[in-house]
Amino acid sequence: MLGPVILAASRSDRMRRLISAAPVTKQVVDRFIPGETVDDIVPVIAELTAKGLQLTMDVVGEDITTPEQATAARDAYLALIDHLKDLDLGERVEMSVKLSMFGQALEGGHELALANVRPVVEAAAAIGTTVTLDAEDHTTLDSMFAIHEELRKDYPQTGCVIQAYLFRTEADARRLAAAGSRVRLVKGAYKEPAEVAYQQKHEIDKAYVRVLKTLMEGDGYPMIGSHDPRLISIAQELAHRAGRKLDEYEFQMLYGIRGDEHLRLAAEGHRMRVYTAYGTDWYGYFMRRLAEKPANLQFFVRSMITKG
Questions:
Q1: Which of 118, 182, 184, 273 is catalytic?
Q2: Burial of 46 by CB count in 10 Å (0-12 exposed, 13-18 middle, 19+ buried)?
Q3: Is the pLDDT of residue 47 over 70?
Q4: Any binding-site annotation on 138?
Q5: Does one domain contain both 71 and 112?
Q6: CA-to-CA distance for 276 and 51, rounded, in angstroms?
Q7: Annotation says 134 is catalytic
């Protein structure tokens, strides 16, 4: 399987330099990351929302090694919120954050990440939108869930992400499927050991359906993070069985992947939110997109051969 190999490469400085230097890389990266600055991304936001889509915005960058970098990450999100305020889009555009970007892995990282993310959540609430805490590798999750619980005391609309491939996730889903919660379910995109995570696609897919059933039958707001046509169909059926209206759950997909499906679901009346990343520190995000789906890797390799 190429996925684990690509994920290992995402942590390699040598591979980072090699891929970043390839002439075709920027062209391919632009498929998944449509800009480097807030000014770049505002027209993209306007275009997608005009098509009836909703968005969650991610300022890419996870390799934080100093408190100053964590503060800069916070400020980047606050700058984004200032621009969103002018667009007056309310809940149509929310934000997704990785707590590693706010200093979670540094000394005293739990408290530092909470201190940095709280102003972002507060500012988002002030313009009528919210923030979802992205899940990262399994060693960070207890801290993420604790920060999520703390933030929800003042900002109950704060969302979080759970990953189907982890053994712990079914229990997490039962705990989180409560009134007022917002939970995005994804398959998982980090290299995890067999002691904590399913390794085979069919096992992950079965776990995804079990967890999604729990969320749909619960009292929270499920967010289905998947591009898999079969899982999308199953999600619609589970929502129907649970008696959910179209505004009581949503689909989420990545910018640059299955764009026609984004529009199809929106046209059918579904809430369809596009996960849209931007920024200069794109390498880790880009490599996980390649690892998630063979077609993404094929697209990159084909572009390298034909354009390089």
A1: 184
A2: exposed
A3: yes
A4: no
A5: yes
A6: 15
A7: yes
